[in-house]
Amino acid sequence: KAKGPKGTKITLKIAKNSIQICTDGGRRLDLSRMGITTFPKCILKLADVDELDLSRNMIKKIPSSIEKFQNLRWLDLHSNQLEDLPKSIGKLQKLFYLNICNNKLTTKNLPEELNLLKNLRILNLGLNHLDDISTSLGALKELKEIGLFDNALTSIPESVTALPKLKKLNAKRNPFPDLTKEEEPIDPIKRLETLHLVQEKDLCPSCLKMCKGEREKLNELKSVTPSPAKKPSFPLLLTPNSSAMDNPEEWRVR
User: Which DSSP letter does residue 114 get?
Assistant: First the structure.
């Protein structure tokens, strides 16, 4: 049986040297672009960091021990080989940024526990294999941005689009039915699909007054008979490009 790539071995020393100080004083462990194929267990000893970047590697699985990163507010796992996420990810209660874009995640393997991340502001699920979105994501009331682009979605639940603080939703390049069907040219005569008629007794006084006023204006326009246009008269212009003269022979070109 062929073995997969062995990948870079991350030691505790390498991990410690990869810690950066953020502008706000937080500690960021940056292990992106390291050729890692398995989650480095040694970094569990650095579980007090505020940010963890494991993006652009070849990691296939995130262990349930990720829950030990209780201070984590920023987690970037994009561009790996992840096929699922552990349920314990829902215990990262301080997390406000989660990027799991460009992996191999399916709807079935996306844990419902994501809805426990009550402080999440930004969630990127783009470039995966999702064919549905759980309505439970509607519980993320603090969510401001969500990326769903390049998946296999045919709809987005209203519970997600109606999130109270949502400002950006990127769902481009999904096979939505109304986007794949070619739209017919709009015929202005057929634009009105439904005409609602009401009786005068159902209108409030101000609306009734306005309607009567509009009706009177329309009747006035109909009653006006347009006068025939007057034929233009040019009494002084008897010949092309010339003022009239008593004797036409005087202006003719000889």
Answer: G
Q: Does 166 map to a domain?
A: yes
Task: Kindly report the CATH number assigned to the domain that includes residue 44.
Answer: 3.80.10.10
pTM equals: 0.69
Task: Name the residue range of residue 144's domain.
Answer: 20-170
First to last CA, the chain: 108
Question: How crowded is residue 126: how many other Cβ atoms within 10 Å of its Cβ?
Answer: 23
Long-range contacts of 200-207 (CB under 8 A, 24+ apart): none
Structural domain contains residue 134: yes
Structural domain count, the chain: 1
Q: Does 60 reside within a domain?
A: yes
Sort strands 97-99 and 74-76 into parallel, antiparallel or unpaired.
Answer: parallel
How confident is the model over 206-228, as pLDDT tens digits?
A: 666 766 776 777 677 666 655 55
| 3-state SS, residue 108 | coil
Is residue 242 in a domain?
no
Per residue in 50-92, pLDDT tens?
Answer: 999 999 999 999 999 999 999 999 999 999 999 999 999 999 9
CA distances for 146 relative to 91, 136, 162, 211, angstroms: 20, 14, 12, 46
Edge-to-edge strands of the sheet including 97-99? 19-21, 27-30, 51-53, 74-76, 97-99, 122-124, 145-147, 168-170
